[in-house]
Sequence to fold (452 residues):
Amino acid sequence: MHNIQVFNTLTNTLEPLITHQPDTIKFYVCGPTVYDRPHLGNARSVVVYDLFYRLFLQCFSQVVYVRNITDVDDKINNSAKEQNISITQLTNRVLEWFYHDINALQVLKPTHEPKVTSHIAEIILLIEKILANNHAYISQNHILFSVDSYLPYGQLSNRNTAQLIAGSRVEVEDYKKNPLDFVLWKPANENDDPSSVFDSPWGKGRPGWHIECSAMSSKYLGENFDFHGGGADLQFPHHENEIAQSCCANKGSTYAKYWVHNGFLTVNGEKMSKSLKNFITVFDLLQKNIAGVVIRYMLLATHYRKPFDFNEKALQDAQKSIDKFYKHIADCDFSLPFLKPSTQILQALSSDLNTSTTFAFLHTLTKDVSQKWQLVSDLHFLGLLDIDYLTKNHQQNITINASEIEQMLALRQQYKKNKQFALADEIRHNLLAKGIVIADSQNGATWSFLKK
Fold:
């Protein structure tokens, strides 16, 4: 039995995580809007919820993790026009960058990773339900959600509508009845890229930003699910609007039970922005030969709900810690099976993802030679074990048991057959951690040594 506690933004309290179904957790996290390379703020959110995912995989028999990809958005349209390329070219390129960068951070693949462009039908159906329930209206060819029609609006932000209008930057157009009313569907214009325009009962156009997540989360997780994560900047208006439109589309729905938000990121005490020339991407650090596991450690070292300030000291501290761990385990036999994560680590992470206690415990393991393999196993569980980096910096020889690899490939094939893709991906990551790369083909999977 698990005993996990999380801070629920909706109630502003630390609560025990009690899921709708025993031994099953379903959770959704807002993923990237693919118009530019992931910056450190994006990366922090990705690794925080990846760590939640790893914890849930240890504590629940079934974990369904959905992280969406927004590939229709005004930012995408504007970026494509600036670069004089098509939206499809831009989103494909940026998505490749995204995967390259987060894979360097040892991030596991979610159970589902839906794209907005593949779920237009679901979005239209949800809008039709909101209209039918009299919670939306049509004005100047826009479909707008009526905030006044949903009395609990503001519950996640813990503010009333007057406070939200006064304290937030909301788009005030003459076609809105209330400045807080938000777009569910917007009409196309003659300058739009055809790949961002879709047919609908209301004419050609594209969905608003907020409706996307409601449609995709309900498709893969149901009308009521357990856990919704994202950055603190999404709390209002994005997450507030998700709750309103979802509950109004599906009568009786409470949507997500727990709302979890990670803190903001600053650079040397200032807000990160391109104008201040302190805008830092994951790729910028990778280009400086800073290992992905070092970046991951740094992003997790500060508790996820607190603001994180990126500076050279934080990076140096993370580098020193990883070097200390890797030096301690350099002579280990990496053909051995990993142990279960330490009880102390699982307990710390179960307390609202207490990474400071987790990392402190890792350092205590370096004081006991007999605990080397436990340290290896814990680093692997936390996504902090990169055999390639370890090999290049601390170790010369790694032994490989070929029969063990074949057994793992057979088990992975069975998982894929049973559609247990998260478990199949975990085996891929386990083998990669041992310096083994899997290649899938129509004839099955083959393996080879990671090229140095």
Remarks:
- The CA atoms of residues 259 and 392 lie 41 Å apart.
